[in-house]
Write a structure and sequence with these properties.
Elements lengths: L1 H13 L18 E3 L4 E3 L1 H4 L8 E3 L4 H14 L1 H79 L11 H22 L5 E3 L4 E2 L20 E2 L3 E3 L18 H10 L7 E4 L7 E6 L5 E5 L2 E6 L2 E2 L10 E4 L5 E4 L5 E5 L5 E6 L6 E8 L2 E13 L2 E12 L4 E10 L3 E7 L4 E6 L7 E9 L2 E7 L8 H4 L2 E6 L5 E5 L4 E5 L5 E6 L8 E7 L2 E6 L2 E6 L4
Helix pairs in contact: 4-5
């Protein structure tokens, strides 16, 4: 009898579950219902959410159905296969997690190494900038001392008893020089000493939440750190500092532009209130540029507009390799050259009674001048006469082209490309609209290779107002769209490629534009904006 009782107890313990029959969807509820349609278990909370209109029964009344379902599953080995597949997936996820952890470790180490290199570059840049700043200041002070010593020597040689024998102009010059020395000293003395503002907020990056179902979604942002810069106020230029383009080789400029740490872009600085529109920009370094405004040749030094006017009545310019500036005037038939001593001399006589120069460009030591004149044949019917001249930097003409066409179309800006001459035209004398053409001029004829057809759904001759044009190293054309507050890129066939900057970047009425290395200078009213540009 005892053996039978023990055997019965053992049979009861074989299928006994150690856990309560808790609902897998509701932890506080127990299974109480069996769905015969889904062959699944549920609690009373599940009743209002799942298995609506299914064949349901109480759990204690479904023993036969439950045993039959288990028998089917065991016979088909379904659960065993499913658990084995789940185990394989978990194992794969563990491997992926380990690989992702190792990858992120490497990315963190790489980011830290990049940050260390950037810190070293920043240190070298700051020390170089500091050296240049104080060297410039020392030079200005030495020049002032030389002026004062020379003036002191001249005054010491003055004989008071013979003062009436000196000319009034000589005395006036000395008195004026004394006042000038005094004012310059006051200006230099009031300049604050350059300071240094350290910024030590560094961020290597941060881990981001993985997207569900993919361990590869883990990413680590590139290292970032706040700008480190010196706060400086520069002394006034020496008499020959305007000619700094001649003191640097092109290779040196390229090397410094790639190795030094750049300022944060865009760089913005205000011009004088007298500046309304800048019609031309020619950068000569990262912080210096020649500009034409109100037909005056001016200079920007260290992102500051200088007060000196280097030439009056200027319509276009180019910079020669030696730093001299070729100056073009529409009302003169000859091109002038601005020398280091700020003297204007004749460079080449290019015009005639029928043609006047309107724009100029230079590429590979070849200077191109576009001359133009217009005649009214009958009322409101015009003929444009065009004369294009190619010459070397000695002013010797190498070839020329003469051609005429019906219509009023004045050249505003030109760029000499390998495929032809890219010309920005003013198309109507009574409006401010423009067009762009890529032409090939030969002798007494010319061919239009490509014409810009607009991008905003309208004919450019009805909608396109452009105040500036330049090219990048890939010979893409960059244009400023005055009406649409934007700067965009055209390809070699003058087809629209991409908008670079617009009102979202703060542009209002972009005018002249120019590119030097990876800096795009954009004149916007009396503000200059410098963007970082990458060739497309």
């Amino acid at each position: 009898m005892a053996d039978n009782t023990l055997e019965c107890e053992e049979k009861q313990e074989v299928g006994t579950s150690p856990n309560q029959l808790r609902c897998r969807f509701h932890d506080t509820e127990e299974y109480s219902i069996f769905c015969k349609d889904c062959k699944d278990f549920m609690c009373f909370k599940c009743l209002g959410q799942l298995h609506q209109k299914h064949d349901l029964s109480q759990l204690q009344d479904a023993e036969e159905d439950i045993r039959k379902e288990m028998e089917v599953q065991l016979f088909e080995n379904k659960y065993s296969k499913q658990l084995s597949a789940l185990s394989d997936k978990l194992s794969q996820n563990r491997k992926k997690l380990a690989q992702s952890e190792e990858r992120l470790k490497n990315e963190i180490r790489t980011s830290v190494e990049q940050m260390k290199q950037n810190i070293d570059l920043s240190e070298a840049h700051l020390l170089s900038e500091l050296c240049n700043t104080f060297e410039s200041s020392q030079t200005t002070l030495q020049d002032g001392e030389i002026r004062i010593n020379n003036l002191q020597t001249e005054i010491d040689n003055f004989d008071v008893n013979k003062l009436h024998e000196y000319s009034v102009s000589h005395i006036t010059n000395i008195l004026s020089a004394m006042k000038l020395c005094s004012s310059r000293y006051d200006k230099i003395n009031n300049q604050p000493i350059p300071g240094f503002a350290p910024t030590m907020e560094f961020s290597i990056g941060s881990l981001v939440q993985m997207t569900s179902g993919s361990c590869d979604a883990c990413v680590l942002p590139l290292p970032s750190f706040s700008n480190i810069s010196t706060q400086t106020d520069y002394f006034e230029d020496s008499d020959t500092e305007w000619f700094d383009a001649a003191d640097r080789d092109e290779d040196d400029v390229e090397e410094s532009s790639s190795d030094e740490i750049k300022d944060e872009y865009p760089i913005k600085f205000q011009m004088s209130q007298d500046i309304a529109v800048i019609s031309k920009i020619v950068p000569i370094s990262e912080k210096n540029a020649w500009i034409i405004s109100n037909k005056k040749l001016l200079k920007i030094v260290e992102h500051t507009l200088q007060e000196d006017v280097y030439a009056e009545t200027v319509d276009d310019i180019v910079i020669l390799k030696d730093g001299c500036v070729l100056v073009l005037r529409n009302d003169k038939t000859f091109i002038m050259k601005l020398l280091p001593n700020r003297k204007l001399v004749r460079f080449a006589d290019v015009g005639s009674i029928n043609y006047f120069p309107y724009c100029i460009c230079i590429r590979d030591e070849i200077v191109v001048i576009y001359l133009w004149n217009v005649k009214e044949i009958v009322q409101n019917v015009y003929t444009s006469n065009n004369h294009i001249i190619w010459m070397n930097t000695d002013g010797i003409v190498t070839k020329s082209s003469l051609f005429a066409e019906i219509g009023w179309k004045r050249p505003c800006s030109i760029h000499n490309l390998e495929s032809g001459l890219c010309v920005l035209y003013h198309v109507k004398c009574e409006s401010s609209l423009h067009s762009i053409e890529l032409i090939e001029a030969k002798g007494e004829k010319y061919d239009i290779l490509y014409r810009f057809k607009g991008i905003y759904g309208l004919n450019p001759e009805r909608n396109f107002e452009c105040k500036g044009m330049c090219t990048d190293n890939s010979r893409n054309i960059l244009v400023s769209d005055h009406r649409h507050h934007s700067v965009y890129v055209l390809d070699k066939q003058l087809k629209y490629k991409k908008t670079l900057f617009d009102a979202r970047n703060g542009l209002d009425k972009p005018a002249a534009i120019s590119l030097l290395h990876d800096q795009l200078w954009v004149a916007d009213g009396n503000q200059m904006v410098i963007f970082q540009y990458a060739n497309m």
